[in-house]
Amino acid sequence: MEKLKAQLDELLNRLDNAQEIRDKLEELVSVYPFSDYEYIISHLLVAAKLSLDEYYQLRDDYLDRNLYLDLFEIGAPRGFGEVWAQGHLKELTPTLERPNKKTDPEYSGQYDFFLPPNIRIEVKASRAVEFKTDAPLYLKALSSDSRKQFDMNFQQVKPACCDVFVWLAVWRDVIRHWVIPSYEVEHSQYYSAGQHRGNVGEGQLHLNRDNLHDFDKYLVDSDKIESAIRSAFEKEKRLRSKKQTSIPLDRA
Fold it and tell me: What is the gyration radius of the CA atoms in the chain, in angstroms?
């Protein structure tokens, strides 16, 4: 949105009455689908200061920068975190199965997916929005190259309940996927146990501009998620086994 505003402001300079239009914008009342952007573009087109080809290019560039803006309009947390995120992952990785008592007799909703033969997967999702603003999500949504601070809070994280975490993060222009062994989430320096008082084994983890690149090693292309899950599961088994067989020095 910031880039589009800057482009339109520059285009306004083509008009002989540019200042008059800017003054009018200050008092303009906008109601969807009519907006400041529509108002500026219509004046540019009528004055023949913006060609149709230029308009198409302006539109296409905006769409490319905002491919996933609609995901910021999903208001209910469950609608985004469960309905969209789990559906998106299932679409990318059709081999994932919904767990039930047949696949896991002890299953009672602890994790989201099951990858045969025995991998338990928990899905977490968040969106990159400008930090500490009260604007609607779709207005404070950030692009992946933004320098503004954000805070993605992955909540209700229960490492003991799954083998592998799949995290999904949405920017205006990209969706990123991380696949992480449960052990490494539990022992991450950014993992905070005890999100809610009395909830043993549950915590949260914040991703922001300061620590985002610390998780680059877990980034996975969308067409390689299944193989990444299987690799993460093998690593999870090694890490858990190593912890269980290690003998503290004071007991040796």
Answer: 24
Residue 126's φ and ψ, nearest 5 degrees, are: -155, 170
DSSP for residue 121? E
Give CA–CA dist 251/243, Å, rounded.
15
Q: What is the pLDDT of residues 227-239, one digit of tens each?
A: 999 999 999 999 9
> What predicted TM-score, i.e. pTM, was given to this entire model?
0.81
- Judge whether 147 and 157 are in contact, CB under 8 Å: no
Task: Tell me the three state secondary structure of residue 5.
Answer: helix
Q: Which residues contact 232 (CB under 8 A, 6 or more apart)?
A: 163, 164, 179, 180, 181
The tens digit of pLDDT for each residue in 43-92 reads 999 999 999 999 999 999 989 899 999 999 998 778 898 899 999 999 99
Q: Which two tokens stand for residue 152?
A: 């993605």
Name the pairing type of β-strands 164-170 and 119-127. parallel
The angle, 0 to 180 degrees and rounded to 10, between the axes of the packed helices 52-65 and 2-12 is 160
Strand partners, 157: 203
DSSP-derived 3-state class of residue 41: helix
Of 231, 207, 222, whose CA–CA distance to 157 is shortest? 207
Return the ∠ at Cα 77 (arms to 79 and 187), rounded to 5°.
120
Residue 104's contacts (CB-CB under 8 Å, 6 or more residues apart) are: 114, 120
Measured CA to CA, the distance from residue 21 to residue 223 in angstroms comes to 48
Q: Is 4 exposed, middle or buried (0-12, 13-18, 19+ CB in 10 A)?
A: middle
